[in-house]
Amino acid sequence: MDILGKLFGSQARVKILRLFLLNPLEVYDTTMVAEKSKVSVAEARRELSLIKSAGILINKSFFKEILSKRSKNSKPKKKRVDGFQLKTTFPLLSAIKNLVVSGTPLNRDEIARRFKNVGKIKFLAISGIFIDEPEARVDVLIVGDNLKKRSIENVLRTIEAEIGKELSYGALETPEFLYRVSVYDKFVRDVLDFRHDRIIDKLGVE
After folding, report:
1. Which of 34, 35, 51 shows the shortest CA–CA distance to 43?
2. In terms of DSSP bridges, do strands 197-201 and 120-126 run parallel, antiparallel, or are they unpaired?
3. What's residue 162's pLDDT?
4. Are 74 and 67 in contact (CB under 8 A)?
5. Strand 169-173 to 140-145 pairing
6. Beta-carbon neighbour count of residue 114 at 10 Å?
7. How would you classify the pairing of strands 57-66 and 120-126?
8. Does residue 97 contact residue 21 with C-beta atoms inside 8 Å?
9. How would you write the pLDDT of the chain (206 residues) with one tens digit per residue?
10. pTM for this predicted structure
11. E-strand spans in the chain?
12. Rounded distance, CA 63 to CA 103, Å?
């Protein structure tokens, strides 16, 4: 459990708070909160009740697509369900956001460690939410050899649950990346020419 987990009494609570603080207009039901925060439904239900009792969340119904359990091929139906949304008028919201969102437990070494088994990484850069650069093209750019897409996505889903925000990313094999650099590819230049933090750089590209 990190420092915020100790202060707030629960790591699950911190992850759920981050989810709502970074997605203030979204409405989530208990199941969605559990999935996105990677906690059990029981934990999500307990923490949501506590957070709502503190006045940070409000109840709000919304339409959710529900798949029929009888037939996998049937079209999803929309059903009105009860959910939760951030109460943007909560008086201490700014202070809580500064504490919870800026207190993300992932530092540069930890990010590098998380991705070490996704292939032979030659270049790893972060931007976007990690360095408070909202206009960034991607949050994570990974370049390497024999990259494992599924492993990369699994790592990203885990990080998303911890920081409370869906991540955008790019993953390129080394030859393709170097070719794109040589032809001044817009996607690559949008990353390299704007503010980013190079966690791993074995290619020395500019």
Report:
1. 34
2. antiparallel
3. 83
4. yes
5. parallel
6. 16
7. unpaired
8. yes
9. 455 565 577 888 988 998 999 899 999 999 999 999 989 999 999 999 999 998 999 999 888 877 666 555 667 778 888 999 999 999 888 888 888 776 555 788 889 999 999 999 999 999 988 887 888 899 999 999 999 999 999 999 989 888 888 899 999 999 999 999 999 999 999 999 999 999 999 998 88
10. 0.68
11. 57-66, 77-86, 120-126, 140-145, 169-173, 197-201
12. 33
Q: Give the burial class of 130: count Cβ atoms within 10 A of its Cβ; 0-12 exposed, 13-18 middle, 19 or more buried.
A: buried
Question: Partners of 28 in the beta sheet?
Answer: 84
Question: Two tokens at 186?
Answer: 């817009």
Radius of gyration over every alpha carbon of the chain, rounded to an integer in angstroms: 19
* All structural domains of the chain: 3-102 (1.10.10.10), 108-201 (3.30.460)
Measured between alpha carbons, how far is 120 from 140 in angstroms, rounded to an integer? 16
Three-class DSSP category at 28: strand
Q: How far apart are the first and last CA of the chain?
A: 38
Calpha distance 84→93 (Å, rounded): 16
Question: Which residue has tokens 């990690």?
Answer: 130
Can you tell me the distance from the alpha carbon of 33 to that of 39, in angstroms, rounded to the nearest whole number?
Answer: 8
